[in-house]
Amino acid sequence: MADLDTEQRGITQTMAARLWNSRWLLAAGVVAVVAVYALAGISAYIVLAALLLLLAAAILPAAGARQSTGSGAAIEATGLQRLSGEYLAAAVADPLIIFDRAATIVHANAAAFAAFGGIAPGMSLSLKFRAPEMQALLDGVLSGDVASDVVDYMEKLPVERAYRVSVSSVGHATDLYVLVFKDQSETRRIDRMRADFIANASHELRTPLASIAGFIETLRGPARNDAAARDQFLQIMQSQTGRMARLIDDLLSLSRLEMKPYLKPGTEVDLRQTVDSVIDSLGPLASENAVAIERRYADGPLHVPGDRDELFQVFENLLENACKYGQSGGRVVVSIAHSDAGPEPGIDVTIRDFGPGIPEEHIPRITERFYRVDVETSRTQKGTGLGLSIVKHILTRHNARLSIKSEVGNGAAFSVHLPAH
């Protein structure tokens, strides 16, 4: 009754406001009607009807607007009433479970079935999720101690996944509650990668810094007047600073590649000319390691879309590794050939050494940052542990891929598969 009175008062106020806003128009209309009545001598009933029409014209827009607003609200309410809880739950991309005060599952959306499996209406949540943090979450909301809460939960099977789980009541006095599982696995994985990367980078920089600090301390103390020791220590310090500079350069290269993951289209690279330039630039290194570089190129044009400087870096890293780690084989074969394998035709550039090879268990991880097959050998060869990671990033930008084939004792072959278009 009070709501009805309030609505009536609202209508009255609206009509009064409309009349006030139209007061000058009404006044002009009244004057015009009275003048016509006085001059033309028309019937008083006609004058009264005209005045009523003027009054209605001033009031009706308000009623019309109210009716339009009411219709819109009615349509909206009708549309919401047609949406069942199942439809709303299905629209949520994250796993969602609705349960009652007995912690019994009432409904679970498709994402929940896919994530957890083996759940069905009527099943007990307490039996399905036995982790202490989930039990505490359910107890807290069912006891009424909290209206909503959030916990971190780890699902072990069928695969390990991390979730941020939130629970809250549904509506008022419905005795229903909803659990939503927000998958945090990818975020956790990225956080671990970032932490590992910082730890590895710090370790790689700390080692040469500690060496340099030790030599400086020795030069300022016992070896202050020892010319031979001074020259030896300065040579080692120069080598260590060079190692740190290479590491920083590689870190900056990775950072630049990650900041621009997409390649600008329209640029074409001549692979024959690019690979020849790489071989010429690494000629002194090959001679120093007593390695002969052989060329085996296909006939005809060998062009691919891409960035020349980045592809130069790819082949430089691969050929440098072949000369250093395949030194015992005495030769490296660089081949360029057309490839029809795969969905699109392309060109393969393969760098093959005949050194000790790579054990099979290391091949899947060899392109990870700071991953080394042999730590001591890598550091002896002045490696930073980032070269193949840079190669992988560049090839991803070029929609290309790297394949590695190796057999212990028979060397390794690194093949770059580049699309021709």
Sheet-strand content, in percent, reads 15-25%
Termini separation comes to: 76 Å
- Give the mean pLDDT: 78
Q: Give the tally of β-strands.
A: 12
Strand order in space, largest sheet: 2-1-5-4-3
The main sheet comes to: 5 strands, antiparallel
Short description:
The protein is α+β, with helices and mostly antiparallel strands.
Please give a structural write-up.
By secondary structure, this protein is of the alpha+beta class. Helix content is 54%, strand content 18%. The chain has 14 helices and twelve strands. It has a five-stranded antiparallel β-sheet, with helices on both faces. Strands 7-9-10-12-11 form a five-stranded mixed β-sheet. A two-stranded antiparallel sheet has the order 6-8. Helix 1 packs across helix 3, helix 2 (23-40) packs antiparallel against helix 3 (44-82) and helix 8 packs antiparallel against helix 9. The radius of gyration is 39 Å and the shape is elongated. It starts with a helix and ends with a strand.
